[in-house]
User: Which sequence fits this backbone?
């Protein structure tokens, strides 16, 4: 068994940084012509600057693989922000502890009110999001929210603070299907600069979260890097390495990858040098599809209408729609206090229609609570 | 065509279709009808599981109206326990005691777990289900499933969704030879010619999903599979000519000696 700390080590950043910026056109062509499984080197070759010229070939190959595995379907889900309270200082995040914004944590009745709204929209898969505030939105708060929401939704995912294995076991038993935990950046050095205070400043504990989830018997683990914090190519290679390591270690777990790109939020400075273009994001998504045919790839409403209207053909299998990214955003409060700005503000019906017209079936339900019995 | 009898049901068509991966429910229904298929499998996890599913669910209701037999499956189950619960929920929601038993804890190749499958099959048979288990092309396992009371066995031709065809041909031939219950080839059938091959060697039926659902024209592909299955079945009944590694003269050269 490969050791995670050997794979994502103090030296791995420099190694892959050097590798990915020296990929030749020939390397890309070799990886494009692989008929068997793609290696991490193939992944790096295809997301390199040289690989960008081959975007049409990549898109065609990814489209074919996605249809083979998932058919012409896209799952729809909605995020539900339960709280924006947070004990961490993260320099890029609208919920950061040092931001003087109004804090809000939903009560039981407010959670149900939001759930009823989303259910009426058609949603059956939901993603619960909180900041990282152990005292207000700890394991018990989440378990209670899941219990309240089970009558409404077939699949419940969470994006909350990293927990220990026993806490995850409790949440799995209570009906949590998926846990998303993004490393933000895999660069150990810059990680410290972005996460200056709070539990999240512990890189190692966050990195090992997915291992704890696998041990707790979770059904699906979502990984990702916050694209734009550091060199997106090197971060993505590390995220792919992390995925390959976990796939080997936990064969019964499903995996998803998300592609958050930095968007302006309250008081956040933007580093234009690390901005990822639309072509590069498409290149990355298609390359993930070639890396693993079963991988679920997810895109949020951070991305623009035109991009979202086309990107599912290159590998995306799940999309959020009509999202609000503040607690109580659907029925209680105006869109303010948001974690990040959304770009695609179309209604759920508009997204549904867009997919249907494109010849894809929007899928509301692909899970059943009956499978939560362990 | 000679009918296929499974438990108490008689089928006049030996093609079973899946219901996933289609661009729309309407296209799925149209493809099923064009193919002549009389039974469609549907994942419990994809449907509403309330009591009124057969009249309200957008996938189920039109199939029921078209007179197609529903074969709920337990896809998503990782253990026997989960599969049994899923089967019970399916029986309640779809008002059928037929269940396609699928237990694949491995998420990379979706290969069925033989041990959990056998445990679940034994329990489901005791609970009165008509059990159609999806399994490896494993002759002793298929015999065990037959002995415990399964209605059919459904060995895979190659990994699900792979479209690689009859990779397990030799093992499937042994299963067919030894089986006293119908053998339905499930998973990996990627082209009509694969379906013909399965039927030619004596399979009772084939189950196809990806190859039809993801075709550019699923309706036409459904028709092609219908013809392919029929061709293979008739060929098997007609007794295919034996193939030889050496040339055989069509008029014997030794006739003058007689």
Assistant:
């Amino acid at each position: 068994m490969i050791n995670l700390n050997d794979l994502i080590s103090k030296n791995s950043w420099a190694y892959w940084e050097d590798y990915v910026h020296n990929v030749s056109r020939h390397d890309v062509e070799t990886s494009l012509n692989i008929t068997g499984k793609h290696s991490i080197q193939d992944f790096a070759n295809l997301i390199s600057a040289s690989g960008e010229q081959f975007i049409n070939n990549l898109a065609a190959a990814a489209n074919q693989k996605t249809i083979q595995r998932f058919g012409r379907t896209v799952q729809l889900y909605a995020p539900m922000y339960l709280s924006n309270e947070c004990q961490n200082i993260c320099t890029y995040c609208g919920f950061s502890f040092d931001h003087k914004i109004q804090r809000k944590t939903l009560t039981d009745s407010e959670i149900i009110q939001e759930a009823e709204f989303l259910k009426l929209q058609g949603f059956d898969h939901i993603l619960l999001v909180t900041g990282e505030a152990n005292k207000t939105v700890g394991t018990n708060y989440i378990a209670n929210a899941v219990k309240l929401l089970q009558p409404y939704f077939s699949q419940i995912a969470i994006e909350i603070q990293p927990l220990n294995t026993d806490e995850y076991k409790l949440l799995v038993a209570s009906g949590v299907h998926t846990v998303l935990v993004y490393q933000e950046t895999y660069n150990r050095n810059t990680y410290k600069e972005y996460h200056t205070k709070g539990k999240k400043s512990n890189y190692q504990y966050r990195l090992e979260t997915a291992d704890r989830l696998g041990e707790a018997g979770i059904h699906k683990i979502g990984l990702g890097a916050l694209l734009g914090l550091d060199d997106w190519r090197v971060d993505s290679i590390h995220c792919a390495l992390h995925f390959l390591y976990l796939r080997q270690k936990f064969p019964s777990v499903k995996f998803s990858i998300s592609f958050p790109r930095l968007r302006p939020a309250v008081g956040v400075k933007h580093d234009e040098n690390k901005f990822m273009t639309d072509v590069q994001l498409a290149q990355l998504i298609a390359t993930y599809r070639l890396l693993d045919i079963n991988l679920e790839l997810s895109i949020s409403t951070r991305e623009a209408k035109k991009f979202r209207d086309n990107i599912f053909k290159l590998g995306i299998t799940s999309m959020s729609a009509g999202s609000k990214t503040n607690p109580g955003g659907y029925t209680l409060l105006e869109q303010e206090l948001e974690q990040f700005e959304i770009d695609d503000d179309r209604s759920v019906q508009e997204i549904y229609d867009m997919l249907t017209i494109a010849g894809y079936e929007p899928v509301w339900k692909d899970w059943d609570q009956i499978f939560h019995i362990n | 065509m000679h009918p296929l009898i499974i438990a108490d049901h008689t089928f006049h068509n030996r093609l079973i279709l899946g219901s996933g991966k289609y661009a729309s429910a309407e296209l799925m229904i149209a493809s099923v009808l064009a193919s002549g298929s009389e039974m469609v499998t549907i994942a419990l996890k994809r449907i509403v599981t309330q009591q009124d599913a057969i009249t309200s669910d957008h996938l189920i209701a039109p199939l029921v109206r078209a007179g197609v037999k529903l074969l709920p499956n337990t896809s998503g189950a990782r253990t026997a326990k989960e599969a049994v619960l899923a089967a019970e929920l399916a029986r309640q929601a779809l008002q059928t005691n037929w269940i396609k038993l699928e237990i694949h804890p491995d998420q990379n190749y979706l290969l069925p777990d033989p041990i959990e499958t056998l445990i679940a099959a034994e329990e489901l048979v005791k609970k009165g289900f008509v059990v159609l288990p999806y399994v490896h092309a494993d002759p002793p396992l298929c015999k065990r499933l037959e002995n415990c009371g399964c209605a059919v066995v459904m060995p895979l031709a190659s990994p699900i969704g792979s479209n690689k065809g009859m990779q397990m041909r030799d093992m499937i031939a042994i299963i067919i030879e030894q089986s006293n219950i119908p053998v339905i080839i499930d998973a990996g059938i990627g082209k009509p010619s694969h379906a013909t091959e399965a039927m030619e060697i004596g399979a009772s039926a084939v189950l196809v999903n990806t190859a039809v659902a993801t075709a550019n024209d699923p309706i036409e592909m459904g028709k092609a599979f219908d013809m392919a299955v029929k061709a293979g079945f008739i060929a098997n009944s007609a007794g295919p000519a034996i193939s030889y590694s050496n040339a055989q003269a069509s008029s014997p050269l030794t006739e003058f000696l007689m």
Observations:
- Chain B touches chain A through 31 residues (CB under 8 Å).
- The longest strand of chain B covers residues 130-135.
- The radius of gyration of chain B is 19 Å.
- The beta strands of chain B are 4-6, 9-11, 15-18, 39-43, 69-73, 98-101, 130-135, 154-155, 184-186, 205-208.
